[in-house]
Write a structure and sequence with these properties.
- This protein has 262 residues and is α/β, with parallel strands linked by helices.
- It folds into two domains: 148 residues, Rossmann fold (3-Layer(aba) Sandwich); 107 residues, Rossmann fold.
- The chain is built from twelve helices and nine strands.
- The strands form two sheets. Strands 4-3-1-2-9 form a five-stranded parallel sheet, with helices on both faces.
Amino acid sequence: MEKTNRRDLPVGVIDSGVGGISVLRELVKLMPGEDFLFFGDSVNAPYGTKSREWICETVLSHTARLRERGIKALVVACNTATSAAIKELRAVYDDMPVIGIEPALKPAVMVKEHPNVLVLATPGTVTGEKFQNLMQGFAGKAEMTALPCPGLMEFVEAGELDSPRLHQYLKDLLSPCLGKKIDAVVLGCTHYPFIRGALSKELGKDVPILDGSEGTARETRRRLLQEGLLRERSAGGSVTFENSLPEKTELCRKLMEMGEAF
């Protein structure tokens, strides 16, 4: 297919559930003229507790299905899936842009000289080679603590974003880390931006909370422009939501429409 025709295809966005909507929001904000096809795999969420082999096979399967339907690029809006499968995806689909996401460690390191940075992520992301290499790249520039958060993404999957149960979970999770000053928090799962408000209440509103969604959107735009696939429209794009649990599509729409409050 010629690039002039490919340009009109949607950008595929995949996630382990509904969390990738946080990335999709930034993509739409930056490229409102593009069409997007979002697929969330809530039936298999969370990915962060599964093996690398399972994640890789599953993500490749979802991507093959989207590719057959017609997409011009793929955004992997899941830190765990990026860590597990991005190399394989790029090898298989070397004829289209494949963009992953990674925790926003670089901007966190820049908040002050040698900051204390707390990274919240799924167990699968924390133990992944890609994440470990990223952390090591900032050794000496900051004191980084990676905190695995089993069960946290499930609150977002349930649409539970500011409940007493969530706050108790966060209190228990963060209690070992609150003895020293935290200069920045990095959200290493695309579900977590939706509980940013609850996190701020527990950490204090003066603690910056960062995620990689905006950077991923910028990189996606750069790659589309580089490949001649960017649609030259300032508005008019569409978003299609799909989920392996069809009843989750309504939650996807609600998260998309939340505004800047989260």
